[in-house]
Amino acid sequence: MFVCRFSESHCNSCVEFMINSVRQWAPSIGKDNVLILCDYRGDRIFNRIRALYQLDEFLMFNVRELEIPIEDYGFPYCFVLNKNQMIADVFVPDKAAPMVTSYYFDLLKSKYFLPAE
Fold it and tell me: Helix axis angle, 98-108 relative to 12-29, nearest 10°?
């Protein structure tokens, strides 16, 4: 499962960049393989954000806290949650380096989401 995480305290343009990148990439791995975890003060704000970014096609939850070190950095991030429920391949998308983000997504696709031969 590919997990995308952002919070109301994160830079709006960084969140938009990540959402747009994920939205473009998700069909290539199947939208059912994408989970979006947000951190908003309440469900009313969470639902507004969901509508604003048109994220109804994705599995999405408002989760206040994940107890992992990258939470402390203050940027949107993503990772893969593997079959053993372990976090792998954590990445912070950078809107200043969109090619690096594309490379990351291509790498994940080939590593986790292509059918086994």
Answer: 30
CATH number for the 2-110 domain, one of 1.10.220.10, 3.40.30.10, 3.30.830.10, 3.10.20.540? Answer: 3.40.30.10
| Domain residue limits, the chain | 2-110
Q: Which residues contact 19 (CB under 8 A, 6 or more apart)?
A: 4, 6, 53, 55
pTM here is 0.91
| Burial class (CB within 10 angstroms; exposed 0-12, middle 13-18, buried 19+) of 1 | middle
Q: What is the pLDDT of residues 25-37, one digit of tens each?
A: 999 999 999 999 9
Q: Please give the single-letter amino acid code of residue 64.
A: R
